[in-house]
Amino acid sequence: MTKEMYRAVEFSEYGGPEVLRVVDREVPRAGPGQVLVEVRAAGVNPLDWQLRSGAVAQMMPVEFPSVPGGDVAGVVAEAGADVTGFAVGDEVFGSIGSGGYAEFALAPAAQLARKPEGVPWEVAAGLPVAVNTAYQVLTDLGLKSGETVVVDGAAGGVGSVAVQLARHLGATVIGTASERNHAYLRSLGAEPVTYGEGFAERVRAVAAKGVDAAFDAAGKGSLPALVELAGGPDRVVTIADHRAAEHGVRFAFAGPDAIRERLEQAAALVVSGGLTLSVARTYPLSRAADAHRESAGGHVRGKLIITPN
After folding, report:
1. What is the rounded CA–CA span in Å between residue 127 and residue 131?
2. Dihedral sign, CA of 223, 200, 178, 217?
3. pTM above 0.85, yes or no
4. Hey, which residues does 92 pair with through a beta bridge?
């Protein structure tokens, strides 16, 4: 180990972005099945600020003090007992649950994959939750080649990855976004429509063969319209609207079981040019609160990233 202490962003109480602070911590040792990652970049996800604010405390309470950040990319600094897939110096990325907003993070080895050479740290750090969630949603929807899917909130991190994976499956994708993101959606292979009131009529106008499935990545109240477009709730999934059950819609949850396989598939697509990730902005540890404010604003194209240095 090259350091005995490291910097991390933590919070010791629920609250607004101002509860985040940079502290010095003692570098931990990797336990069985774990690797210690020297973090190069960490992805910012809505769950990070939902956990910090206490908005999901009943379902997912945190243990204080807590370091946010489920997505990381970095270099293996130490491998614990029973870890055979990784060695010191390996470049990895993955979804670790929490602890990513830091110079070092402990990670379950089973939830990491090798970062392909040439893929920027910021891109690798933005992929894990988006990739795992998008694959889970497409699995839940049972989407097949030749079908048409609507993605509401298609320009965000998860939405933009879902668009590309659906296109890779051979599906037609109609994506909602603000006007300024329409060219971006076209570049991903989606037919863009403007979100908001009346968007169901706009979708119908461009859905030549109708709509087979729908994915709510935005949580802005679109579920009734999506259910109507899809002809019922069976093939509608949300990751953002906690009133899903009221509409008979499934709330998708992507656990860690298949994450390595999904990350490896996504890495191969990134290398081949079949999957791209837009990095909207990077923030240093000292500006983690600003990253949370921007993420909570809900109009980010792609991903926000935190870098330790």
Report:
1. 6
2. positive
3. yes
4. 74, 114
Structure tokens at 272: 């081949």
Residues 178-236: tens digit of each pLDDT: 999 999 999 999 999 998 889 999 999 999 899 999 999 999 999 999 999 999 999 99
- Quick: pLDDT tens for 89-130: 999 999 999 999 999 999 999 999 999 999 999 999 999 999
Does residue 120 come out as left (phi exceeding 0), alpha (psi in the -120 to 50 range) or beta?
A: beta
Upper half-sphere CA count for residue 150 (Cβ side, 13 Å): 37
- E-only strand ranges, 221-276: 236-238, 250-251
Closest residue by Cα to residue 162 from 140, 194, 193: 140
Q: Token pair 């976004």 is at which residue?
A: 177
Q: Which residues pair with 76 in a beta bridge?
A: 37
Burial label, 170 (beta-carbon count in 10 A; 0-12, 13-18, 19+): exposed
DSSP 100-156: -SBSEEEEEGGGEEEPPTT--HHHHHHSHHHHHHHHHHHHHHT--TT-EEEEETTTB
- Going by C-alpha positions, the residue among 81, 108, 83 that lies closest to residue 95 is 108
Question: In the chain, what percentage of residues exceed pLDDT 90?
Answer: 91
What pLDDT digit, counting tens, does each position of 121-149 carry?
A: 999 999 999 999 999 999 999 999 999 99
For 52, the 3-state DSSP assignment is helix
Give 3's pLDDT tier (boundaries 50, 70, 90).
low
CA 197/CA 220 separation, integer angstroms? 11
Burial of 153 (C-beta count, 10 Å sphere; 0-12/13-18/19+): buried
